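Why show two proteins at once? Because comparison is the fastest way to build intuition. When a single record is shown, students tend to memorize it. When two are placed side by side, the eye starts asking what differs. So, the first record is below.
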Amino acid sequence: MKIPTTRKMFFLIGLVALGMNSCTENTEANSSSEDSEELSANNETSSEKKSSIIIGDLEIAAEDFPKEMGWGEAKQECEKMGDGWRLPTIDELFIIYDNREKIGGFDEYAGYWSSTRYEYSEEEVWTLSFHDGLRYKQVLGVVNKPFRAVRDTK
């Protein structure tokens, strides 16, 4: 008797899921101290989140702040992190945008705050759209936007 293709697919998915579950259990049960040392050396375990990503001389927070804010508040929140954390410049946002898949966690339909003021008005700053990769000027005090902190590694 020939099994319909859909049934085969569900059967194979079930087998793969069972196999992955048992592999995970075996891996956890048989992990060596050498593996644990390697994870500790990287300062990361599978249950921990990365705290930052380094690209060139720029350290980038691994996640956006949990709440969108106005520019002034966003700038203050980055600075409150201490140790040189700040809003990225528009040029740094372009670097982040170019590496967005490697970094991850961006709102692909949002414009992100930069620290760079529009050169012809103190009431406007540059933002970068993660939807189309273009920069836009934004009047201050009008909207809240997502943002991510950066700092120099040198």
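Second record. Ask yourself what differs from the first in the token line.
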Amino acid sequence: MPICLTYRLEVPAAKRHHYSINRSQWLAGLNCRPGASEVIYLYSWDVGKTGLEPAGLIEADKAVDHIGHPYVQMAQTLEAKYTWMKRTKTFVEWVAFYPTGAVAPDTLPQYYIHPGITYFVSNNIQLDAHLFIGLNKPATDFFGGPGLSIRF
């Protein structure tokens, strides 16, 4: 069972955007855009030669609600991938976002179904297309798009 734990923190670096921050803001990460600091636990299984690959993740992101209150955005996904041909996979994923500690009354949990397809151009290049479909009122109705991944 492959597992992975990742951490990401983005800090402003462009000259055209000047940020003035103090030490406590830096340590708290308050200078970052919402969602820029995250911890992700990824897991997946390869079910023999069936082509089926269940997977998921648990994620914690730093976020700020629309009234300026910081909170932790928890996410949980459960996914099933299926390999149709050596280079082509489809997937369907259930996605949930839980705003933990948000105080804005309209910052509520969101649920999505997320189907898509991936095509491996080579071992290092992947093309994909996906669509998120909102399952409850706070969720966006739908969004998606194409993707390109390059491994260096």
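One difference worth noting in the second protein: The radius of gyration is 18 Å.
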